Amino acid sequence: MNLTLKVWRQKNRNTQGSIVDYQVKDISPDMSFLEMLDVLNEDLLRKGEEPVAFDHDCREGICGSCNLFINGRAHGPESGTTTCQLHMRKFNDGDTITIEPWRAAAFPVNKDLSVDRSAFDRIIQAGGYVSINTGGTPDANEIPIPKQIADRAFEAATCIGCGACVASCKNASAMLFVSAKVSQLALLPQGHVERKTRVENMVAQMDKEGFGACTNIGSCAAECPVGISLENIAILNQEFLLAKATSNNLA
Q1: What family is this (predicted)?
Q2: Predicted TM-score of the model (pTM)
Q3: Is there a single domain that holds both residue 101 and residue 125?
């Protein structure tokens, strides 16, 4: 396939960026989207030009690094797919593809298509863990957890922290991400001891990072590559209200 790429180029977070047009030729439909970008960068290097910076790591849909906005959609046109799992057969010969970074004040652009998502790390550091000593690893059958609860906790834990929810939300809200991390631990007995301080601290850090408020539009869940449910936001709201109603922290 021969394609026209309209790629966002930006030297660093302190400079203005712009869309630059590139042509790529003889692209195999079996290539992944990132492999197609590799071809583009090889062409640019041969011409002595600066390659396009973009984030990637595992290229297996696990790490959440491949955060690209493709033709106006997070991770591209295929639902339930990360950019690295998106194949070029989803496009047609002669297509024009617009490629941009995540757009959110809390995700500043490092360079070109690479953004700083360390705000997510700081939210996790605020409380997305179990810090108490739970002893040795018990046999799985020794902790009676109903399968329905275990399944919901597992589904919340599948969040890869890619930021597609933020990029897709008109308010740049991180509620789906934060709610998945809160729900994962709030549903399990290991997380109950710190559940109140956890949700208070994580929501406070989310607000501090500058993410917008949730208005339940649902675009976050629609574009999430692993299908995190909006039900987690309901769990987060419930946990937060319970924590505030019984907390000694009046801030």
Answers
A1: Belongs to the succinate dehydrogenase/fumarate reductase iron-sulfur protein family.
A2: 0.92
A3: no
Token pair of 232, please?
A: 């987690």
User: How far does CA 9 lie from the centroid of its chain?
Assistant: 21
Q: Which whole number is the average pLDDT over 177-206?
A: 94
State the sign of the Cα–Cα–Cα–Cα dihedral 197, 200, 202, 208. negative
Phi, psi of 13 (to 5 degrees): -70, -15
Q: How many CB atoms lie within 10 A of CB 26?
A: 7
Tell whether 125 and 235 lie within a shared domain.
yes
Are residues 80 and 126 both part of a single domain?
Answer: no
Q: How far apart are CA 221 and CA 166, in angstroms?
A: 10
Count how many domains the chain has: 2
For residue 53, give its domain range: 3-111
The overall average pLDDT reported for the chain is: 94
Main-chain phi, psi angles of 45, to 5 degrees: -65, -40
Please state the separation of Cα 214 from the chain's center in Å: 16
Q: Are 142 and 134 in contact (CB under 8 A)?
A: no
- Indicate the DSSP class of residue 88: G
Query: What proportion of the chain, given as a percentage, has pLDDT over 90?
Result: 89
- Using the predicted structure, report yes or no on whether residue 45 has a pLDDT greater than 90: yes
* Boundary-marking domain end, from 53, 78, 111: 111
The alpha carbon torsion through 35, 36, 39, 40 (nearest 10 deg) reads -130
Residue 250 in domain: no
Residue of 69, 61, 31 whose CA lies nearest to 169:
69
> Residue length, the chain?
251
CB 202 within 8 A of CB 182: yes
